[in-house]
Amino acid sequence: MREGWRTAKLADLCEFRNGLWKGKKPPYVHVGVIRNTNFRADGSLDDSDIAYLDVEQKQFEKRSLQYGDLILEKSGGGPKQPVGRVVLFDKEDALYSFSNFTSVIRVLDSSHLDFNYLHRVLYWYYLSGATEMMQRRSTGIRNLDFGAYKALDIPLPPLPEQKRIVAILDEAFAGIATAVANTEKNLANARELFESYLSAVFSQQGEGWKERSLADVCVNLDSKRVPITKSKRMSGEIPYYGASGVVDHVADYIFDEDLLLVSEDGANLLARTYPIAFSISGKSWVNNHAHVLRFDAIESQRFIEYYLNSISLEPYVSGMAQPKLNQKALNSIKVPFPPFDKQRVVVEKLDEIASGKRQLSDIHRQKLNALSGLRQSLLQKAFSGELTAGKAASDAMSQVEEIA
Questions:
Q1: Helices (H), strands (E): how many in the chain?
Q2: Closest CA to 300 of 367, 227, 218
Q3: If 0-12 CB within 10 Å is exposed, 13-18 middle and 19+ buried, where does residue 23 land?
Q4: Could you give the angle at which helices 340-382 and 392-403 cross, rounded to 10 degrees?
Q5: Residues of the chain above pLDDT 70, percent
Q6: The last residue of a domain, from among 335, 365, 394
Q7: Is 298:358 a contact under the CB 8 Å cutoff?
Q8: In 172-258, at which residue ranges do the beta strands (DSSP E only) sit?
Q9: One domain for residues 269 and 354
Q10: For the stretch 359-385, what's the b/e string if a residue is b when 16 or more beta carbons lie within 10 angstroms of its beta carbon?
Q11: pLDDT tens, residue by residue, 53-81
């Protein structure tokens, strides 16, 4: 730690207040209540969905938010819900409180500790995984060990340096946010370009194209599927497929050929966050959550794979809570089916475009990972005293520009 810096326990620097209970005794006051859903991943407050409640005035007086308060998520609503997120309350002259799944951290002495600086420190503790190590489970809810959290060591440079660290981080994070947004936009553009071409291929049908039922262009092998419960599977190297791909590896196989699998059930049939049709090759075992289709030629298989992934299956799916594409509905799907030589040309062109899209996606994902790593690196340097030493700040901005 640099000369002139010291550390102090969070408990010695702040006061803490538990979240709001509505209460039952009048008079009441109408207030906005900050909840877990208002926490953004970057530590900022999302005020687009604030709940407004009539709460007991006495309750509110003890739990009203002040400008500069930090709101800590001390309880999570499920096994994967994070705990330890912290947001900065930056509203003035407004009636706001905070839910009983959260707590407020308020700086005791602003002449020695800047609340913006403390927010960045606590955000770093969350990003580093320190708060995940403090979680406890109770009746399905993850709770933060508040005693351990209050014992966190807070690095304390002089107040002017705290403000300088905040300014450097804010500038760097703004650059990172812009780079992330541009990268995600480029990813979306690449995806839209591919989907646009895919749609055009199947809508602009040429000479010799015929519309046929899926059952007329392939053989359905669903009757050969065998589901195996996890406890009865023998571990091995053969892929065991379900509705969305490989779910396990087993010791034996049912099929040993090129096949097209199509999801039979699951939310993805409607959400389409990943392909519902996917080709497999070689030895495999398939459970009863994926239809199994055999084609005369691999080109026909790949052609139909592209087509099924390009259309909405909603007209063929039954059940909204548990979407299902049964075999009868699958077989009835009408598919465009050109002569074999045209199928091959279409597949080759789509493969070429898909390969380019994957390469772009890989580059963009690497860039997103690098930006995420840079954010954590900057925070680590900031609170070890490195960020305000020498050329570290200008070097940090150069890194952002280089990745972007």
A1: 10, 22
A2: 218
A3: middle
A4: 170
A5: 95
A6: 335
A7: no
A8: 210-213, 219-220, 235-242, 245-250, 255-256
A9: no
A10: ebeeebeebbebbeebbeebbebbbeb
A11: 888 888 888 889 999 999 999 887 555 66
CA distance 18 to 38: 17
Structure tokens at 313: 């299956």
Nearest CA among 25, 18, 42, 104 for reference residue 67: 104
Residue owning tokens 């002139």? 4
314 shares a domain with 178: no
Same domain? For 343 and 196 the reply is yes
Shared domain for 119 and 72, answered yes or no, is yes
Res 321: pLDDT = 76
Q: Are residues 23 and 140 in the same domain?
A: yes
* Lowest-pLDDT range of 88-102, 147-161, 228-242, 284-298: 88-102
Digit-coded pLDDT (tens) for 332-370: 999 999 999 999 998 998 898 888 888 888 888 888 888
- The whole-angstrom separation of Cα 156 and Cα 190 is 46
Q: Print the domain residue range for 148.
A: 6-156
170 and 229 assigned to the same domain: no
pLDDT tens digits along 156-204: 999 999 999 999 999 888 888 888 888 888 888 888 888 888 888 888 7
Tell me the torsion sign for CA atoms 185, 188, 169, 377. negative
Count of domains for the chain = 3
Residue with tokens 């380019």: 356
Q: How far apart are the first and last CA of the chain?
A: 31
